[in-house]
Amino acid sequence: TVLSEKPTTFTITVTSEAGENDETVQTTLKFTYREKYPDETPLYEIVSQENLDDNDVTDIIKLLEQQAEENLGMVMIFTLVSAVQEKLNEIVDQIKTRREEEKKQKEREAEEEEKQRFHGTPVTIENFLSWKAKFDAELLEIKRKKMKEEEQAGKNKLSGKQLFEMDHNLDTSDIQFLEE
Question: Which residues form the RWD domain (predicted)?
Fold first, then answer.
């Protein structure tokens, strides 16, 4: 868009190629020719921008400065716009790469959390003994409850093993029975 004839001032809108999810970055550059153009650089500025960080804008300005100095003595607007176009495409690629890295990082973090969930507590002598003491206390409590229930139900029968442990005469009773 031509803004004025004296001095010649115009704007050019530069848009990147569509990235992931049809995302684009865009900037509008304003150029003003000086009297001795192309032997001196034109005046340029970024009038508007979309989806660009401040660092990206700074990089574009530096790129314009560099390209303008390299092309002194030649008509350079097309070269400047082309350089900005390439830079915008690079920015879109960087955004895509950054998102992929963030996604991979989240996947790694989720994987680490999953590993931690299944990892558990490392077994040492101290924590094993602590666990065993609690476990034995729980088993003893269960046996006590069972014994109380049996006593209340009137099932005070002893097992064969308990009978042999209580009366050692039973050790030989089967032999005496067989002899008779």
Answer: 1-91
